[in-house]
């Protein structure tokens, strides 16, 4: 994601969209969000920082802007994020039901540790807990932001998107780290 800077940079175009839409309207907000995403990409290029997060963010803003522009509805700027959250809420929940908690699959996939963790009941419980936590985070977004989307509250939807974005992901990530570390420290159950 490009570290803390990548997180901040990916939030700025959405924040710009929220403010400009509130003050002026949809078209200027779309232009401002796209221009901000482009400026961030150029800024990262000039500073010789990783471009992948900036380009991914610019593509994401572009997709959101395209949809909102086609429908003429500011709330549709947030529709891809809402669908993304719904997809991940369902994916994390299904992974728990089938006993392949996605938090463990992702964690060990990133670290290249394989799937041996599934044989350890402590780790399986920890990743199940973590996956349920991620399910709650994504489902909370869908419930709150979906309600605002259906109520056609584009400005409040933007504020909710920012408030429920990285702060909630941070909570889920901390919960995952806590659960994994706790599981690694606890003794193996007697056979």
TrEMBL record:
Keywords: Membrane, Transmembrane, Transmembrane helix. It comes from the Bacteria. The chain crosses the membrane at residues 53-69, 81-102, 123-144, 156-180. It holds the Pfam family DUF3159. This is DUF3159 domain-containing protein.
């Amino acid at each position: 994601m490009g570290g803390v800077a990548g997180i901040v940079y990916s939030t700025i175009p959405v924040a710009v969209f929220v403010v400009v839409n509130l003050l002026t309207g949809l078209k200027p907000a779309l232009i401002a969000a796209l221009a901000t995403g482009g400026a961030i990409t150029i800024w990262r290029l000039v500073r010789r920082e990783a471009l992948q997060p900036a380009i991914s963010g610019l593509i994401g803003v572009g997709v959101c802007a395209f949809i909102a522009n086609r429908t003429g509805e500011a709330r549709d700027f947030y529709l891809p994020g809402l669908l993304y959250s719904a997809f991940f809420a369902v994916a994390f929940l299904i992974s728990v039901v089938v006993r392949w908690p996605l938090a463990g699959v992702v964690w060990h996939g990133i670290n290249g540790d394989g799937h041996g963790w599934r044989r350890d009941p402590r780790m399986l419980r920890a990743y199940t807990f973590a996956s349920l936590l991620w399910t709650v985070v994504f489902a909370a977004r869908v419930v709150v932001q979906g309600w605002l989307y259906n109520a056609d509250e584009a400005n409040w939807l933007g504020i909710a998107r920012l408030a429920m974005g990285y702060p909630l992901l941070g909570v889920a990530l901390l919960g995952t780290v806590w659960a994994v570390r706790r599981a690694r420290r606890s003794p193996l159950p007697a056979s």
